[in-house]
UniProtKB/TrEMBL annotation:
Residues 242-307 form the tRNA-modifying protein YgfZ-like beta-barrel domain. NCBIfam families: PRK09559.1, ygfZ_signature. Folate-binding protein involved in regulating the level of ATP-DnaA and in the modification of some tRNAs. It is probably a key factor in regulatory networks that act via tRNA modification, such as initiation of chromosomal replication. This is tRNA-modifying protein YgfZ. HAMAP family: tRNA_modifying_YgfZ. Belongs to the tRNA-modifying YgfZ family. Coiled coil: none annotated. The lineage of its organism: Bacteria, Pseudomonadati, Pseudomonadota, Gammaproteobacteria, Vibrionales. Folate binds at residues 32, 187. The gene is ygfZ. InterPro entries: GcvT/YgfZ_C, tRNA-modifying_YgfZ, YgfZ/GCV_T_CS, YgfZ/GcvT, YgfZ_barrel. Keywords: Cytoplasm, Folate-binding, tRNA processing. It is found in: Cytoplasm.
């Protein structure tokens, strides 16, 4: 059975650390999944389940948010937006099997249908991404609905497309000749440079939202009503009990850092566990980047190393946003 992508090859790009990124790339987001909520109670139901303010979400905007357990530990981090006749949320595919049943657990009492979508997920990246969206899809705003799906602006050089397979083929046909085709490792690189958090299976139910900077990314509303895990999240803000944050680190590595890997930190002449890798990217010259959750009181010049590769030291890089910026 043929699919929309049979004639296309989405490979891992070979990029050195100092190489410019493609001015336009079409990314096949196979490691991501989409959840849809449809029904008149979808917004009110979700409002009581997640950290972000669903009620105030404009149809032309998207928001980050987290779905937590009762202890405030995150099952997933998602991007939420209006999609077709309801809501769509983008999250890592690895958590779908465990997170989705938890989200649906109490939906039997509400008029909402929650399910995994069959939409194709594509990314457009690069300095020409905005112009390409304008030319191919038209419309205005950071979330654009069209006949066969939705386009969502992620940042200045990225758009997400959630479309049916026919639309995916049509869009690919229009831009493939002028775009580099990539697997979603290129999306990982953008996420790491923008310090956008995620939850994979290896890091599920380990961190509260502030440990991955969601308060600085407008992913937590401290003004909305109760939701699952809200007591812990509020206590972390008002009592200042959160002792961790997510940072960007860089160094040489033989293997690409992956979610759940251990990063050690120097303590005098010794090394101790410093934090947990959230996502990693490796350039062709073995220079690597990673997102890692660390204690938020470390000195900026603290040395790090991967526990699995102790011969190479890593360093912390500046974040592209302030951790003091709260919703």
């Amino acid at each position: 059975m043929s699919t929309w992508s049979d004639t296309l090859q989405f490979d891992t790009l070979s990029l050195s650390a100092d190489a410019p990124l493609p001015s336009l790339a079409l990314v096949n987001l196979t490691q991501w999944g989409l959840v849809t909520l449809v029904g008149q109670d979808s917004i009110s139901y979700l409002q009581g389940q997640v950290t972000c303010d669903v009620v105030s979400l404009n149809a032309r905007q998207s928001t980050l948010g987290a779905h937590c357990d009762a202890k405030g530990k995150m099952r997933t981090i998602f991007r939420l937006f209006h999609h077709r006749d309801g809501l769509g949320w983008l999250q890592r595919k690895s958590v779908m099997d465990t997170q989705l049943p938890e989200l649906k657990k109490y939906a039997i009492f509400s008029k909402t249908t929650i399910e995994a979508s069959t939409d194709v997920l594509l990314g457009l990246t690069g300095e020409q991404a905005q112009a390409t969206i304008d030319n191919v899809l038209g419309g205005e705003g950071e979330v654009r609905a069209f006949d066969k799906g939705t386009a969502v602006k992620i940042d200045a050089q990225r758009w997400l497309l959630a479309v049916d397979s026919a639309a995916a083929g049509e869009i690919a046909e229009k831009i493939a000749a002028k775009a580099v085709l990539s697997d979603d490792s290129l999306w990982d690189l953008y996420d790491i440079r923008q310090a956008l958090p995620r939850i994979d299976t290896e890091t599920g139910l380990e961190f509260i939202p502030q440990s991955m900077n969601l308060q600085a990314l407008n992913g937590i509303s401290f003004k909305k009503g109760c939701y699952t895990g809200q007591e812990t999240v509020a206590r972390a803000k008002w009592r200042g009990i959160n002792k961790r944050a997510m940072y960007i680190v860089s160094g040489q590595a033989e293997n690409c850092p992956k979610a759940g890997d251990v990063l050690e930190r120097s303590v005098g002449d010794n090394w101790r566990k410093g934090g947990t890798i959230i996502a990693g990217y490796q350039f062709s010259d073995h220079q690597s980047l990673a997102l890692v959750v660390l204690p938020n009181d470390l000195e900026p010049d603290t040395a790090f190393r991967l526990a699995a590769e102790p011969e190479n030291q890593w360093q912390q890089l500046p974040l592209p946003y302030s951790l003091d910026e709260e919703a």
